[in-house]
Amino acid sequence: MTSRSVNLKRKWITFLRIIHTGMVNFLRNISLAVAAIAVMVVTLTILLFSLIANETFSNTIVQITNKIDISIYLKDSNSEEQNKTLVQQVDNLPNVRGTEYLSKADALERYISQNTGNEALLSAVNQTDNPIPATILVKPADLDKIEDIRQFLARPEVAALQSDEPSYSGDRKEAIDKISDATNTLQRIGVLAVIVFTVICALIIFNTIQMAIFNRRDEITIMRLLGAKTSYIRGPFIVESIIYGILSAVISVLIINSAFLASNNALQASSLGLLDIAYASEYFTENFLKLFGLQLVAGILIGMVSSIIATRRYLKFKVK
Question: Rounded to whole angstroms, how far apart are CA atoms 245 and 46?
Answer without folding.
Answer: 15
